[in-house]
Amino acid sequence: MDAMSAGSRDSDTATGAVQTAIDAVYESIASGDLRPGQPIRQETLADQLGLSRQPIREALRMLASDGLLTYRRNVGFCARELSSAELDQAYRLRRLIENEILCGTTDIAPAALTRLRELNTAIADAAARHDLGAVRRLNAEFHFTLFAQSGLDLYVEELRRLWRLTNIYRAIYATDPNTISRIVAEHDAIITALESADLPRLIALHNQHREGTLDALTDRLGATETATATP
C-alpha cells in the first residue's frame, strides 16, 4: 500500500470515529438521556465508544457549531439549554418553514400515503410496548416522509436542524401515553387531509399538532425557569 492510500484510509477512519461520536451524543440528546445543561464527560464518552479523546473533541465542537451544545468555562461542553423565549422562536421558525413545505405536498404519491399510515400504526404499536425511543424515531420519520414529498430539499434540511435543536425538550414531553395517543390521532387527521388534497385543513391540523407540543413544552420550561429564579 502506498503512502497516499494509507493516508486516505487513516482519514476515513478518523472521519468515521468523529461521526460515531456525533451519532452517540445526538442519540443521547434525542432520547432524553442527556438533559438540558448537562455536562458531557469526554473521558466517559471515549471509554463507552472505544475511541480516543481527539475524535470526541472534534465531534463536540461540531455539535456546538450546530447549536446543540454549548461550551462553559471550567465545565466543558454541555447540552444546550433553551429559554422559553428561544423555544418559542424555534417553533415560530418551524411554523414558517413547515407551512411552506406543506404547500408542496398535496399531490402526494399513493405509496407515500401508505407509508405514512404504516408509520402511524407503528407509532401506536411502539407506544403499546412502552418503547419511547421507537416512538420518537418513528414520529420523526412520519413527519420527514411527509416533508420530503414537497421536493424543497433546502427547506427540509433547515427544518432538520430546527428539529434537532428542540429534540432534547420533545424527549421530555413525549413520555405520557395520553400524549402519544393524541399524536397518533392527529397524524390520522393529517393523513385524511392529504388524501382529500385539502391544503387549508392540512396546514391548520399541522399547526395545531405542532403548537400543542409547544404549549406543553413552554408550560414545563416556564415552571422550571420560575423555580430556578425563586430564592
TrEMBL record:
Pfam families: FCD, GntR. InterPro entries: GntR_C, TF_FadR/GntR_C, Tscrpt_reg_HTH_GntR, WH-like_DNA-bd_sf, WH_DNA-bd_sf. Keywords: DNA-binding, Transcription, Transcription regulation. GO terms for molecular function: DNA binding; DNA-binding transcription factor activity. SMART domains: FCD, HTH_GNTR. Residues 15-82 form the HTH gntR-type domain. Gene3D superfamilies: GntR ligand-binding domain-like, Winged helix-like DNA-binding domain superfamily/Winged helix DNA-binding domain. This is GntR family transcriptional regulator. It comes from Nocardia terrae.
